[in-house]
Amino acid sequence: MIRILLAEDQAMVRGALTALLSLETDIEVLGAAADGEAAWRELQRLKPDLLVTDIEMPGLTGLELAQRIQRYALPVKVVIVTTFARDPRHRQCVEKRLRRRACAAFRNRRGAGGRSDSQDQSGRLFRR
Question: Which of 32, 37, 94, 123 could form a disulfide with 103 if both were Cys (CB 3.0 to 4.6 A apart)?
Answer without folding.
Answer: 123
